[in-house]
């Protein structure tokens, strides 16, 4: 399934899937805004909702090359990609195994929509492979995972999950948003379908909403059959912006990953911080596994403020780092899960998931770590008095 593309990562980011400007020889891909294409003597019926306009078709090649797969698809949001991927392979009476800690939107999609279709689902107790085994049933079709997971950066073993799924003839899907293709290529470990919210690292500038799927030609073609009926295509103008963003994907994510390691080390040695969750730290319980399956440890981390420092006050006192619901932009952002993403759970339910009041999820940007450290220092000082 590996792509034969032997280009370096930055070359792939810049050049793979360019739309050649044959007419004027411009340096960048021209945008084909047309929603109507000739059918006369043309075998491919191009149409935006068929996900095959020139810009869409070519960008899918970049997505596939980045994820080491044969093919790819792009969508108007991460959820459009995730929902199309799942519903392409599921029908009434089927069963799915879902890792317990997954993105909130995906969780809502499953618990709010699957019952209507008569699709069964089970959530695992943890991200350990052993916890997936007892949930496998006669009608199980898919194992769905997310690693590193949100917000505590748990790591799921890609290789053992892929092996388990193959033994039982199940399809594997992963949400690879947090790692991005720069830090993790699940296809190399045998995972079948790779999903992304391209709103995050792929877009990278907190200004476009998009989704992506990578997989084998066969799987992508099956997802396509369903996706054209749901109509979650990305506009060609945004496809072009996503192509532009992907040219710097490696430069951005490498820098953000390097900064995250520095910030994790700083936070771990800060007496006002109780705990730091980052797969790059030796103190992370799955550090060895992360090292084995990730090319870099990513730019997302979480930390717990010491009792007595209020999470909301701390974030309001930050001057450079922005409190923000989303993540993965060039700018550093924080969110406090107990007050936002997990606010609807009871305190007991939150604690069961390891989410304390003072937990801060930190999406590290490209700013110099010394400036980020100075910002955190002053915000802690202000929040203490
Ligand atoms: C944001 C996000 C999604 C959903 O993506 P949208 O583009 O908002 O639809 C899915 N998974 C993860 C891990 C995310 O962070």
Descriptive keywords:
385 residues; alpha/beta; Aspartate Aminotransferase, domain 2; Aspartate Aminotransferase, domain 1; 13 helices; binds pyridoxal-5'-phosphate
Strand content: 5-15%
Radius of gyration (Å)? 21 Å
- Classified by CATH, the class of the largest domain is Alpha Beta
| H-E order | HHEHEHEEHEHEEHHHEHEHEEHEH
State the helix count: 13
Structural domains: how many? 2
Nearest-integer average pLDDT: 95
Shape: globular
- How far do the termini sit from each other? 58 Å
CATH topology annotation of the largest domain: Aspartate Aminotransferase, domain 2
DSSP strand tally: 12
User: Which ions, cofactors or small ligands are bound in this entry?
Assistant: pyridoxal-5'-phosphate
The CATH architecture term of the largest domain is: 3-Layer(aba) Sandwich
Task: State the low-pLDDT regions, or none.
Answer: none
Structural class call reads: alpha/beta
Description:
The protein is an alpha/beta fold. It folds into 2 domains: 9-246, Aspartate Aminotransferase, domain 2 (3-Layer(aba) Sandwich); 249-383, Alpha-Beta Complex (Aspartate Aminotransferase, domain 1). 37% of the residues lie in helices and 15% in strands. It is built from 13 helices and 12 strands. The relative contact order is 0.12. The mean pLDDT is 95. Bound molecules: pyridoxal-5'-phosphate (PLP). Residues 77-79, 103, 105-106, 150, 175, 177-178, 197, 199-200, 209, 211 line the site of pyridoxal-5'-phosphate.
């Amino acid at each position: 399934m590996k792509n034969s593309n032997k280009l370096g990562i930055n070359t792939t980011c810049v050049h793979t899937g360019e739309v050649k400007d044959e007419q004027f020889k411009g340096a960048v891909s021209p945008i084909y805004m047309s929603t109507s294409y000739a059918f006369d003597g043309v075998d491919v019926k191009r149409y935006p909702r068929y996900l095959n306009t020139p810009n869409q078709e070519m960008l899918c090649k970049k997505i596939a090359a980045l994820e080491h797969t044969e093919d790819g698809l792009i969508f108007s949001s991460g959820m459009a990609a995730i929902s199309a991927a799942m519903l392409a392979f599921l029908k009434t009476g089927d069963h799915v195994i879902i890792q317990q800690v997954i993105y909130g939107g995906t969780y809502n999609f499953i618990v709010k929509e699957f019952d209507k279709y008569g699709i069964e689902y089970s959530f695992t107790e943890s991200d350990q492979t052993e916890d997936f085994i007892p949930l496998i049933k006669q009608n199980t079709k898919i194992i769905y995972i997310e690693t590193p997971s949100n917000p505590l950066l748990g790591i799921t073993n890609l290789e053992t999950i892929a092996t388990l799924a193959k033994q039982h003839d199940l399809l594997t899907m992963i949400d690879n948003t947090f790692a991005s293709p720069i830090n993790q290529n699940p296809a190399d470990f045998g995972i079948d379908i790779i999903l992304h919210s391209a709103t995050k690292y792929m877009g990278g500038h907190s200004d476009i909403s998009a989704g992506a799927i990578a997989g084998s030609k066969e799987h992508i073609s099956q997802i396509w059959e369903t996706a054209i009926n749901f109509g979650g295509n990305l506009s060609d103008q945004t496809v072009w912006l996503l192509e532009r963003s992907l040219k710097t994907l490696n430069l951005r994510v490498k820098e953000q990953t390097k900064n995250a390691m520095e910030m994790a080390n700083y936070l771990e040695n800060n007496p006002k911080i109780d705990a730091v969750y980052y797969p790059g730290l030796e103190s992370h319980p799955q550090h060895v596994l992360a090292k084995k399956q990730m090319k870099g440890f990513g730019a997302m981390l979480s930390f717990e403020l010491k009792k007595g420092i209020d999470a909301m006050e701390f974030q309001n006192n930050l001057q450079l780092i922005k409190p923000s619901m989303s993540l993965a932009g060039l700018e550093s952002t924080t969110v406090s899960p107990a007050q936002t993403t997990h606010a609807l759970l009871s305190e007991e339910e939150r604690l069961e998931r390891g989410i304390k009041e003072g937990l801060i999820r930190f999406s590290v940007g490209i700013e110099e770590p010394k400036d980020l450290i100075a910002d955190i220092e002053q915000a802690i000082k202000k929040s203490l008095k």
